[in-house]
Design goal:
Blueprint (H helix, E strand, L loop, with lengths): L2 H21 L7 H17 L22 E4 L8 E3 L2 H15 L8 E8 L2 E8 L2 E7 L5 E4 L1 H5 L10 H6 L2 E10 L1 H13 L8 H9 L4 H5 L3 E8 L10 H10 L3 E2 L4 E4 H15 L7 E8 L2 H7 L1 E2 L2 E2 L2 E5 L4 E13 L4 E13 L2 E7 L3 H7 L2 E2 L2 E5 L7 E5 L9 E2 L22 E2 L6 H12 L11 H9 L14 H4 L7 H13 L5 H8 L6 H11 L2 H5 L3 H5 L6 H12 L1 H12 L21 E5 L6 H10 L3 E3 L8 E4 L5 H9 L2 E3 L1 H8 L1
Bound molecules: 2-(butylsulfanyl)adenosine.
């Protein structure tokens, strides 16, 4: 196959898999197979750099860090929205629209209704169908050029269909970059474990990720782009906002599933309440809804006032904040020794849920907010994100409030705590600190880790207090005699626990890696590492370079992994797990390896009974590789009828030649 054809095919296939995964949420390929396609793409592009195109999926893995962002002028201003918060205010807006369009007061305007996503507005400029520039909103006229960062986002197509590119040689698409709540929680757990400042909310995390001068950091953040419009209101063949969104959906953009037409103010109001009801269940944050006049002609007729259109409005939700009294500040010690101040509050209902605890994040936040015990504080609970203390109601201060002293010693073990330079968090660095041991054991035995049923936080605490466990690996040396003297431990319970421990020795590598508790490594990253390195020994020997080549592992995580395996105590823990019988079974991909073919390189030539792609797939699923040219590195030439010069090359280089029957025999 000509190299350009192979490239085109690879790019098509990879983007199809991206689309299935990121837009349709229906993966159609194993990670291993995806990686193989990607590696092959990179291999070819390395050999033929002149063939790299701006829409190649290889452009998604991040570019070299830049010094600063260049300004990007928006051809059409990016507007903001007028806001309303009540049904009466919306009715006023509706009245103004009808007046502007010369309609009867009783008429129903055809609106569209959609969530107002709480993220970061960006514009994507497609020139002749290819994504040329991506920028932030900025002041609406000039934003920042963040093209390489936006290209890392898999839900942003790098190219439009040929048909659309022809009709609209210039298409500017606008939308919101967000981070899902679930991904935000994972990211913040990771930040906290790494001693880095947690992000205040998903919006800040998304904005921070998009503003990285080093797009390799952006690529490690699972950002998502939702399209919500285009810059032009006059586009051939498009008469309504819904038609525009329909086009964007067929062009493979993510369009919000709660976009609906809505006839008149009554339907808008109904939809507003329905969306408010399910708001907490959505996996992304919304701070309200956006209502737009559906007809683009009517939009043009209505025009704009200063920087907001007259044809659209944001109907925002009431705030999710409440006031209560800060009764105490507790300092909790995490698995990695990070010390987090937690507010103990007089119970208060916020957005329908009773809140007693809220995060104060770290010392800097405590100081910046000047929080004192006895203060009346404002609590915010957005969706199901952990509640936080937003600030103090200073007018309510009496003078009797007590300042919060950050401890100098670990609240668990009493040893002095330190704040490493550049980190936001204090840490207890005593490896035998009981609180840390308990948290480590709890994490180790948890569902995503070794999954040892019956080993919860309470038992972990007892085991640590009785000095039965210092390291999670000690679990594998527990005996019934150790367990029976413990409180509430009958023979049956002890036996169940020992059985669960024995069973955990067979856990897959990905879960073991997660269980180790490498700071910042959650379940997704652990699975990625298992797949990429295959065995624990290979992972323990990995270099920063190896890690930097993996999408999804940013430089900070890479550093954390290296540091973890460099620590003799961690190496001892792994050795002790091995001694205790943990099998560390190498990662098994879901592809079927055929011994005779796995790891071998094939070249295909001549006419076979089926298209070459068919044989290529057979070879690849059996773990082999297909190369386009015969070289000394090739192991076999699969040779059909009327072969060309490749057969001569193979004979000259001593590469084994197989006919189709011979190949099929090998495959069996
Ligand atoms: S339409 C003229 N639709 O809200 C129309 N904006 O104040 C302008 N936003 O920063 C935007 N979700 O990023 C529109 N579904 C949505 C939106 C949305 C969020 C943001 C947008 C902008 C702000 C407008």
């Amino acid at each position: 196959m000509a190299i350009t054809d192979e490239l085109a095919r690879l790019r098509r296939e990879i983007e199809q898999h991206n689309y299935n995964y990121y837009i349709l949420d229906k993966p159609t390929v194993s990670d291993a197979e995806y990686d193989r396609l990607f590696d092959r793409l990179l291999e070819i592009e390395k050999e033929y750099p002149q063939l790299v195109t701006p829409d190649s999926p290889s452009q998604r893995i991040g570019a070299a860090p830049s010094e600063k962002f260049e300004p990007a002028r928006h051809r059409v201003q990016m507007l903001s929205l007028q806001k309303v918060t009540t049904a009466e205010e919306f009715a006023d807006f509706d009245r103004r629209v009808k007046e502007g369009l010369g309609l009867q007061p009783t008429a129903d305007v055809e609106y569209t209704f959609e969530p107002k996503l709480d993220g970061l507005a960006v514009e994507l400029v497609y020139e002749n169908g290819v994504l040329a520039v991506g920028s932030t909103r900025g002041d609406g006229l000039v934003g920042e050029n963040i093209t390489p960062n936006l290209k890392t986002i898999r839900s942003i197509p790098l190219r439009l269909s040929e048909k659309t590119a022809k009709i609209y040689p210039l298409l500017e698409i606008r939308g919101e970059v967000i981070l899902r709540k679930s991904d935000f929680r994972r990211l913040n757990d990771q930040q906290e474990e790494l001693g880095l400042e947690p992000f205040a909310n998903p919006r800040n995390a998304a904005a921070g990720s998009v503003h990285q001068l080093d797009s390799r950091i952006t690529v490690s953040r699972p950002l998502v782009f939702y399209a919500y419009g285009v810059s032009d209101q006059e586009l051939p063949g498009l008469e309504t906002h819904l038609a525009v969104m329909n086009l964007l959906e067929t062009e493979r953009f993510l369009v919000n599933e709660h976009l609906h037409p809505a006839r008149g103010a009554a339907e808008v109001e109904k939809r507003f309440h329905t969306l408010a009801d399910i708001r907490a269940k959505l996996d992304y944050e919304i701070d309200g809804t956006v209502i737009k006049v559906n007809s683009l002609r009517d939009q043009i007729r209505l025009g704009q006032v200063s920087r907001a259109p007259r044809w659209a409005v944001a109907w925002k939700f009431a705030a999710e904040t409440a006031e209560t009294v800060l009764e105490d500040v507790i300092f909790s010690v995490g698995r990695t020794g990070v010390i987090t101040p937690v507010a103990a509050l007089r119970p208060v209902r916020v957005a329908g849920v009773e809140v007693k605890r809220a995060s104060l994040h770290n010392e800097d936040e405590l100081i910046a907010k000047d929080v004192r015990i006895g203060d009346t504080v404002i609590i915010r609970r957005a969706g199901d994100v952990i509640p936080e203390v937003v600030g103090v109601v200073m007018e309510r201060r009496t003078g009797k409030e007590k300042p919060v002293a950050f401890p100098v010693n670990c609240p668990s073990c009493g040893r002095p705590i330190t704040r490493p330079p550049g980190e936001a968090a204090y840490r207890c660095i005593n490896p035998s600190c009981p609180a840390q041991i308990v948290e480590r054991i709890f994490h180790f035995a948890g569902k995503g880790g070794m999954d040892i049923e019956g080993l919860g936080g309470k038992l972990a605490l007892q085991l640590a207090e009785n000095k039965l466990l210092e390291s999670p690996a000690d679990i594998y040396f527990l005996t019934k005699d150790d367990l029976l003297p413990l409180e509430l431990m009958a023979d049956k319970r002890a036996q169940n626990l020992l059985d669960a421990i024995a069973k955990s020795k067979d856990r897959p590598l990905a879960n073991i890696i997660y269980a180790l508790g490498i700071p910042g490594i959650g379940e997704t990253a652990a699975a990625l590492l298992a797949e990429r390195f295959g065995t624990i020994d290979r992972l323990m020997a990995v270099t920063e370079d190896d890690l930097n080549n993996i999408g999804g592992i940013g430089p900070i995580l890479a550093e954390s992994i290296i540091a973890f395996f460099a620590d003799p105590q961690n190496r001892r823990m792994i050795a002790r797990m091995k001694d205790g019988g943990v099998k560390f079974t190498p990662f098994q991909s879901n592809r079927r390896e055929v011994a005779a073919i796995a790891g071998k390189t094939f070249v295909i030539t001549g006419t076979l009974s089926k298209p070459r792609d068919h044989f290529k797939k057979l070879i690849e699923t059996a773990g082999g590789k297909v190369s386009s040219a015969v070289s000394k590195k090739a192991d076999y030439l699969l040779c059909g009828e009327s072969p060309g010069s490749k057969l001569d090359d193979a004979n000259r280089l001593g590469v084994s030649v197989l006919d189709e029957a011979g190949f099929l025999k090998l495959l069996k």
